[in-house]
Design brief:
Strand content: 25-35%
Number of helices: 4
Radius of gyration: 14 Å
Helix content: 10-25%
CATH architecture: 4-Layer Sandwich
Distance between the termini: 25 Å
Number of domains: 1
CATH superfamily: Metallo-dependent phosphatases
Number of strands: 10
CATH topology: Purple Acid Phosphatase, chain A, domain 2
Length: 158
């Protein structure tokens, strides 16, 4: 299974996302979406599981949860924006979601791909729509196969 990981679009969806996510089976959005129409655009590519972020309005909050927990290809995945932890990091997220094998988050706009406790993959794809600190917009791709650790990478949209 191939996952498209995206966060912090803030209502902006670069056209490169459609190329990068062309063959994904599921899209996970880590919040600060910016509008329901953006989710509709992503849903044209693949099923979407999204959470709301601290800047999302009531329209998104009515449609999305603060934290999403799902199982894909046998992996326990948690998706959160992470703002409830201040400035989240991999250790804090692992402590708060001990059952997760994969934790995906946003909020910081800083791409991160880290292995915690030798078994938990933590990923922040960066910001697709509003990068900061001179970083390019970015998303993530993760490939899941039962019995094999997840394979993931950050994809720059420049």
């Amino acid at each position: 299974m191939r996952l498209g990981i995206i966060s912090d679009t803030h209502g902006r969806l670069p056209s490169d996302v459609f190329d990068v996510f062309e063959q994904v089976d599921h899209i996970l959005h880590g919040g600060d979406i910016g509008g329901v129409d953006l989710l509709v655009e992503l849903e044209a590519l693949a099923p979407v599981t999204a959470v709301y972020g601290n800047t999302d309005g009531f329209d998104i909050r009515e449609k999305c949860d603060r934290v999403a927990k799902l199982v894909l290809d046998g992996f326990y995945i948690t998706v959160t924006h992470g703002d409830q932890f201040g400035t989240p990091n991999a250790i804090v997220l692992r402590q708060n979601f001990p059952e997760a094998e994969i934790i995906l988050y946003g909020h910081t706009h800083a791409p991160l791909l880290e292995l915690v406790d030798k078994t938990v993959t933590v990923m922040n794809p960066g910001s697709a729509g509003q990068p900061t600190d001179g970083r390019p917009p970015s998303v993530g791709i993760m490939e899941l196969e039962p019995g094999i650790p997840p394979r993931a990478r950050i994809v720059s949209l420049e």
